[in-house]
Amino acid sequence: MAQKKPKFYVVWRGRETGVFDSWADCQKQTAGFDGALFKAFDSKPAAVKAYKDKPHAHIGQGKKPVSSALKVPGLVGSPVQDSLVVDAAWNTATGDMEYQGIYLATRQKLFLKGPYRDGTNNIGEFLAIVHALALLHQKGSNIPIYSDSRTAISWVKKKKANTKLEETAHNAELFELLDRAETWLTSHVYANPILKWETTVWGENPADFGRK
């Protein structure tokens, strides 16, 4: 059987730019990065040459350029196995919320928190990402973090949980956790990519609680 010819990936706009020799490395730079620009080439010389050009000379001439790997199904690829995946569950009957994180490669559960009274799913997703960031920061690890919540990812990027939930005596503990999470985000620098788990392509988030 003939071996699959290797590809080389040019990233003109991403977390880091340059020529990468694997799709996994390219994805780390582009997945979830707004305005990412990249393309695969059949040889390294061609990729190196293209990197020196403007991206629009190689990406969809006369068409709208690729803006994000996550918006092009053929370019989604596979999730990075050396990563941490998080998810939250919210009980619609009781209002209780909990969240957890697993290491994708082995499906080992790294943390499980809750249930917390009178929460929301978005709050749980936000706290799960920040918890993962703090845990990986302690371990000195820059591996990616996956979440299937675009809202929570945007909150983390803004370092602010933009929840409309009102604080009550029942959920005071939850709001204390939100304050601590926001403080952590504003006082720490991290290099972990926070990526969207592509459920429609990869299937259910492995950290899902399975209560749908």
Structure description:
With 212 residues, the chain is of the alpha/beta class. It has 2 domains: 8-57, Ribonuclease H1, N-terminal domain (Ribonuclease HI, Chain A), CATH 3.40.970; 84-196, Ribonuclease H-like superfamily/Ribonuclease H (Nucleotidyltransferase, domain 5), CATH 3.30.420.10. It has helices at residues 23-30, 44-52, 121-139, 150-158, 172-187, 199-202; strands at residues 8-13, 18-20, 37-41, 84-90, 97-103, 108-116, 145-147, 194-196. The strands form 2 sheets. The chain has a 5-stranded mixed beta sheet with strand order 6-5-4-7-8, covered by helices on one side. Strands 2-1-3 form a 3-stranded antiparallel beta sheet, sandwiched between helices. The longest helix has 19 residues, at 121-139.
Keywords:
212 residues, alpha/beta, Ribonuclease HI, Chain A, Nucleotidyltransferase, domain 5, five-stranded mixed beta sheet, three-stranded antiparallel beta sheet, 6 helices, elongated
> What does the main sheet amount to?
5 strands, mixed
What letter string, H or E per element, gives the SSE order?
A: EEHEHEEEHEHHEH
Distance between the termini: 43 Å
Strand content: 15-25%
Q: Report the radius of gyration as a whole number of Å.
A: 19 Å
| CATH uppermost class of the largest domain | Alpha Beta
What is the number of independent domains?
A: 2
Assign the CATH topology of the largest domain.
Nucleotidyltransferase, domain 5
Strand order of the largest sheet: 6-5-4-7-8
The coarse silhouette is elongated
- What would CATH call the architecture of the largest domain? 2-Layer Sandwich
State the fourth-level CATH superfamily of the largest domain: Ribonuclease H-like superfamily/Ribonuclease H
Query: Structural class of the helix and strand makeup?
Result: alpha/beta
